Amino acid sequence: MTGFEVHDEMGCAGQKEWWSGTLPTQIHDKQGRLIHVRAYEDKDFEGLKEMYDTFEPKGLESGLPPPDDQVRLRWLHYMISDLGNILAIHKNQPVGHTALDLSCTPSCPEYLIFIRKGFRDCGIGTTLSTAMKAIAKQSGCEKVVVTVRAANTRAIRVFEKVGFVLRGGIDRDRDMELCLRPRRTTRPRACKK
Ligand SMILES: CC(C)(COP(=O)(O)OP(=O)(O)OC[C@H]1O[C@@H](n2cnc3c(N)ncnc32)[C@H](O)[C@@H]1OP(=O)(O)O)[C@@H](O)C(=O)NCCC(=O)NCCS
After folding, report:
1. Which of 47, 87, 99, 153 has the fewest CB atoms below 10 angstroms from its CB?
2. 97 within some domain
3. Is the CB of residue 148 below 6 angstroms from any atom belonging to ligand 1?
């Protein structure tokens, strides 16, 4: 995905790169490593595939990378061709990947994020989530949704830090959403004299 239709305040449509104005950027993580944050490019495919081949945990729920090699390859091809993808890169290798599904429900995309073992708890997930929030907002999304295991308190902490709130009942999986537009409030009634 290199571009998509955005609508300005007047509802006029135009094409532009979906990360435009927000990326690329770079940070030093909590261990002092230089991390580049930029949109996915074709040259990243092998590095990203290797990240997911060695990723732990894999799983069948909560958007984790599928354990089966062929299913995981199809899943990766789907993400890089249909979703908006941002990478965290260390020494030319992807160490973090976040994706926003702007193709099906552009106003309410689903959010995915994965950080390579050895790079977790170093601020990279928070950086990627903050970048995605800015991009989703400038793209005119009303909200972003994510499903997370209730036991995944680190992920919940990161999502809450950037503004996601828990929705629905307490279950093994929790739905979270990030509202990007202020809710419409009813116009205050004129005071009666
Ligand atoms: C969840 C994940 C994306 C978070 O990214 P990250 O780079 O590790 O997160 P960060 O370092 O930016 O922030 C972690 C925060 O959680 C806190 N934290 C760490 N362990 C925690 C725990 N067990 N419970 C609660 N908070 C925890 C950290 O202190 C930090 O908060 P702080 O910055 O206020 O101190 C990453 O760890 C990951 O990829 N995990 C495996 C895959 C996964 O769970 N993906 C999400 C599926 S929905």
Report:
1. 153
2. yes
3. yes
Number of domains in the chain: 1
**Domain with 136 in it: what CATH number?**
3.40.630.30
C-alpha to C-alpha distances, 182 to 12, 13, 30, 50, 137, nearest whole angstrom: 21, 22, 33, 40, 12
Residue 4 pLDDT exceeds 50: no
CA of 159 to the centre of ligand 1 (A): 9
Q: List, for residues 72-85, the tens digit of each pLDDT value.
A: 999 999 999 988 89
Distance CA 126, CA 191 (A): 46
pLDDT digits (tens, 9 = 90+) for 147-191: 999 999 999 999 999 999 999 877 888 999 999 986 555 555 554
Q: For a substitution probing ligand 1, which of 35, 75, 156, 157 has the most ligand atoms within 8 Å of its CB?
A: 157
pTM of the model: 0.89
Q: Which domain holds residue 91?
A: 21-179
Q: Does a structural domain hold residue 13?
A: no
Q: Is 126 in the pocket of ligand 1 (CB under 6 A)?
A: yes
Q: Are 146 and 166 in contact (CB under 8 A)?
A: no
Q: Is 155 touching ligand 1 by the criterion CB < 6 Å?
A: yes
